[in-house]
Amino acid sequence: MNLPKIASISKKIVVALLGLFLVLFVGVHLGINLCLLRGDGGIWYRAASNFMGTNYVVKVFEVVLFATIIVHILLTIALQIQNLKARPQRYHRPQKTKTSFGSKFAIWTGILLLCLLMMHFCHFYFVKTGWVEGKYMIKIEQIVNLKQLLYSKDEPPAIQEKAIEELLKKSQENSLFTEDYEWIANLTASDIEPYKEVLPYFKPDFYNVAKDIFRVPIYAILYIIMFFVLGFHIVHGIPSAFQTLGLNHNKYNAVIQWLAWIYAVIIVVGFSSIPIYFLFF
Ligand code: HEM
Questions:
Q1: Do 165 and 271 reside in the same domain of the chain?
Q2: Within 10 A of 135 (CB to CB), how many other CB atoms are there?
Q3: N or C: which end of the chain has fewer CB within 10 A?
Q4: Which residues contact 56 (CB under 8 A, 6 or more apart)?
Q5: Which residues contact 192 (CB under 8 A, 6 or more apart)?
Q6: Residues 243-278: pLDDT tens digits?
């Protein structure tokens, strides 16, 4: 029994299954992000983000998703090392194999995708964790209450009083109404920083975060590159996963390849329309 071979096959199966799970996540993620294009000032998008941010099933899903991404990457690297070890000698002549262009470059598109995904996390996910400055929503009522709370102290320092007045003014200038007709202030992390201890929970405003990012041409371009790289990875990944799982058949291979192309085009066009919309409209 060839144990390393078995281990390599099981690694491939896990990579394939996790890859298909990630492909499905990308579809759901696109569905939610397309709400950005409704032209309603972010009402639908905020409602969808709010649901995703507060639902416990989604929170568990998020942990599974991150674990999936990490395991998918680690196993791919392990497989690559295993492949290199299995071929220690360089071929004298370039080998003409049936390996497709996508298959040969899957590892490189994967690495590039990972780098661009890191940029994406810095722009969005890390705003939620508070590691990166972003825009946040907080009820104006809560800022008014904060003012009252400090006024009720014996002798509030004048500077403190003035700072809260200014925060309230800024909040009113940068305010919006949510789908529940709540009056919300749109502030940055540094605006809220001095009051972090006393202010109740505030949510990231991903609509305005996205708007600000995609209006910067270089980011819009980098994101569109990311979507194309993702599309390329999908076109290769779906048929490859089907093959690893033994779900390929001469009769259906062309259909699987076509479906992978259609899905990839939907992903690339769908996602790319978002930065293009914010850049030009
Ligand atoms: C216009 C394009 C995109 C926008 C506006 C966008 C927006 C967002 C936002 C707002 C979050 C944070 C959600 C939250 O944690 O509550 C997020 C997270 C994430 N995004 Fe994107 N995204 C885009 C494209 C993509 C693409 C193409 C991928 C895949 C390669 C991707 C992968 C992820 C992952 C893995 C997370 C972390 C998991 C999560 O929080 O759901 N995103 N994205």
A1: no
A2: 20
A3: N
A4: none
A5: 136, 138, 199, 202
A6: 988 888 888 899 999 999 999 999 999 999 999 999
Separation of alpha carbons 156 and 75, rounded Å: 58
Residue 123 pLDDT grade (very low, low, confident, very high; cuts 50, 70, 90): very high
> Which residue among 23, 29, 229 is best mutated to probe the pocket of ligand 1, counting the most ligand atoms within 8 A of its Cβ?
29
Judgement on whether residues 147 and 166 belong to the same structural domain of the protein: yes
User: Is the domain of 41 the same as that of 83?
Assistant: yes
Nearest CA to ligand 1 atom 43: 124
Report the separation in Å between the CA atom of 171 and the middle of ligand 1, taken as the mean of its atom positions: 27
Q: How many domains does the chain have?
A: 2
What is each CA distance from 153 to 4, 77, 156, 161, 252, in whole angstroms? 71, 59, 6, 11, 74
Residues 23 and 114 in one domain: yes
The residue from 205, 226, 250 where one domain ends is: 205
Task: Give the pair of three-digit tokens for residue 1.
Answer: 């029994």
CA of 26 to the centre of ligand 1 (A): 8
**Residue pointed to by tokens 């009113």:** 172
Query: pLDDT tens digits for 47-70?
Result: 888 777 777 888 888 899 999 999
Is the separation of the CB atoms in 135 and 186 below 8 Å? yes
Q: Alpha carbon 48 to chain centroid distance? A: 14
**Domain containing residue 157:** 135-205
Same domain, 113 and 249: yes
Judgement on whether residues 201 and 219 belong to the same structural domain of the protein: no
CATH of the domain at 65: 1.20.1300.10
